Structure formats: C-alpha cells, structure tokens
C-alpha cells in the first residue's frame, strides 16, 4: 500500500546514499516519480529494503526494467576477457544469483551448483565450461525481462559474490597460471604463437597482466562495477568456510548440499580440511614472493580494487575477525 511516508523513505535514501553511478540514482528517481503519480494504485508498494525499490513496483516500471535488462544484455561487453565467468550463475530452486570471481574458489562453487542442480557427476566432471556444465546463467536469451528484474531486485533472491585480497589473489594466479606446468596456461592465453611470454618473476607478471586480459588476474572491480548496487551478500576467501555456510543456510541449502559429501572420502563439509585441486597455498607463501616494492606495484596495479567500497568493506571485515 502506497503512502507519503514510503515515498519520503525512498527519496531520503536516494539523497543520502553515496551513489556509485549517477544513472542508478536517475533510475530510482524516475521510479519514484512514476509511483508518485499513481497514488490511487493500491498494487504499488514502496519500501526501503537493501535495493530500495520493491520488485513488485519496478516490474511495472519500464524504465527500471529496461535499465536492468540492459545491464544483463551488455555483460559481454563490460566483462570482456572474463570468458566463462562473464554472466552470473542462477540457481532458481533456491533463488540464488552468484557472481563468480576466478581465483576465489570458483571450481568448488561451480561443483556446488552442479550438485544443487542434481548432477550425479558433480564431483568429477570439470564444472567450468558453460557449454557443458549444465548450469544456467543470467542472460537475456534464458530469462524474460520480468524474471530478470525480479532476480536482480527482489529481497526474496540472494545475489552473492565472494571477494579476495587483491595481492593474495594475484599471487595465487602467479603460482597457478605461471609457475605451474611451465606456464602452459599463460602461453596458451597470452602468446600462443611466439610461446615466449612466460614471466620469470612477479615483476614481469605485473607487466604481463596489463597487456594480456584474463579473468584470473583481472581486477575484481571489473566484476563489481555494474552489479555492486544489486548484490546483497558478500563473502570473502579469508573466511570462506564460515561465509559459505552462512550463504547456504540463508537460502536453505546447507544441510542437503553443504554439510556433507565433500572431501576425499565425502565426509567433510564444503571447504573443510581437504584442499581443493586448485589450491595454491598463496596465503602461506605471501612473504616468500612479496617485497615492499612488489607490494607497492601490485597495489598500484589494483588501485581500483582498493578504492572499491565493497571490496574495502569486505577486507576490513576480514581484518576484524
């Protein structure tokens, strides 16, 4: 039921919040004006949840709906170089939209999603290639504009992302994609013809990362840039076991899919004691690879990450735990 107090909540939130993009504020204001011109419409409801606008009302507002579908439709352009992780994954049964970030346990999360979707070979099959993993992604070709609007704004849906300290993530990429298997990954993705671009040092890898776009070392800010205002659950790699349990409990999937069935013998909970195949132990090797100069250069390389308020808040939260 619409009333003036609801409109004031909305407008105060718009005026008071620090907007990351002016167009977001414009969309909110246009929605408010559309609602405000229909006082007698008892179906319209405005509250002040995490995403400000109630999904029932925005589903009737073409401006907001068009903006959201534009985000989904243009994801290919905005996330160029992110390959298989361009689009967030959708688990409809549990109303989950999940934004994967390479080098933040994407292998385990995608195996989890395949398990939730009922695939018997979820533990053994490579879960990454979207052509064969059987997972749904948030794309215009797969969902209607109305469904996309609900997924991206409804408080009934969880929109989650897990983040990692940029320096630790960069080192993990170096150990896994450069030092592992004589740099075959780097050769295949960065210099398939010359085959002479494998970095010998972290310093050389910093320079390569600027020339060769790849999701494993792309700034996390690129993943958040157009989605940050819509995400309502943020976990971290540092606290991944507890945060994953918290996420699965939130969507009602912990007991069935997270509390057991993991590990070598299938007796552990997700992210239990057993390391995953891609684990590099980078957090323990940090001091072996980072000098003060390398730290400074990596911080400069990922300046946007360290300025992104979602990432900064997540890292600050980790330090307090």
Category by helix and strand content: mainly alpha
Give the SSE order as H and E letters.
Answer: HHHHHEEHEHEHHHHEHHHHHH
Question: Which runs of at least 5 residues are low in confidence (pLDDT < 50)?
Answer: 1-60
> Average pLDDT value?
80
Strand content: 5-15%
Q: Major sheet: size, sense and barrel closure?
A: 5 strands, mixed
> What is the subunit organization of this protein?
single chain
**Tally of strands:** 5
Give, in spatial order, the strands making up the sheet with the most strands. 3-1-2-4-5
Q: Percent helix among the residues?
A: 40-55%
Q: In one word, what is the shape? A: globular
Count of separate DSSP helical elements? 17
N- and C-termini, Cα separation: 41 Å
Alpha-carbon Rg, integer:
21 Å
What's the number of domains?
2
Q: If you had to describe this structure to a student in words, what would you say it looks like?
A:
The chain has 321 residues and is mainly alpha-helical. It folds into two domains: 57 residues, no CATH class; 193 residues. 48% of the residues lie in helices and 6% in strands. It is built from 17 helices and five strands. Strands 3-1-2-4-5 form a five-stranded mixed sheet, sandwiched between helices. A hairpin with a 4-residue loop joins strand 1 and strand 2. The longest helix is centred in the N-terminal third of the chain and has 15 residues. The radius of gyration is 21 Å and the shape is globular.
């Amino acid at each position: 039921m619409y009333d003036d107090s609801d409109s004031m909540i909305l407008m105060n939130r718009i005026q008071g919040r620090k907007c990351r993009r002016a167009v977001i504020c414009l969309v909110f204001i246009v929605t408010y004006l559309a609602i405000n011109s229909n006082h007698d419409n008892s179906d319209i409801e405005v509250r002040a949840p995490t995403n400000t606008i109630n999904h029932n009302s925005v589903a009737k507002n073409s401006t907001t709906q068009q903006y959201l579908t534009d985000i989904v439709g243009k994801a290919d352009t905005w996330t160029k170089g992110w390959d298989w992780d361009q689009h967030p994954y959708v688990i409809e049964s549990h109303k989950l939209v999940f934004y994967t970030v390479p080098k933040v346990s994407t292998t385990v999360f995608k195996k989890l999603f395949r398990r939730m979707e009922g695939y018997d070979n979820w533990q053994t099959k490579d879960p990454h290639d979207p052509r064969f993993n059987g997972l749904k992604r948030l794309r215009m070709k797969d969902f209607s504009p109305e469904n996309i609007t609900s997924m991206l704004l409804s408080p009934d849906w969880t929109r989650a992302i897990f983040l990692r300290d940029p320096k630790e993530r960069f080192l993990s990429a170096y150990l896994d994609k450069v030092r592992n298997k004589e740099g075959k990954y780097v050769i295949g993705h960065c210099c398939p013809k010359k085959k002479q671009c494998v970095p010998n040092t972290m310093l050389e890898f910093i320079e390569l990362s600027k020339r060769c776009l790849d999701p494993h070392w792309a700034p996390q800010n690129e993943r958040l840039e157009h989605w940050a205002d819509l995400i309502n659950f943020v976990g971290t790699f540092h606290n991944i076991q507890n945060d994953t349990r918290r996420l699965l409990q939130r969507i009602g999937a912990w007991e069935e899919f997270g509390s057991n069935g993991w590990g070598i013998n299938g007796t552990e909970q997700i992210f239990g004691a057993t390391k995953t195949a891609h684990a590099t132990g980078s957090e323990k090797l940090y001091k072996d690879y980072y000098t003060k100069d390398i730290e400074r250069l990596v911080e400069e390389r990922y300046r946007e990450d360290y300025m992104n308020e979602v990432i900064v808040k997540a890292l600050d939260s980790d330090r307090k735990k």
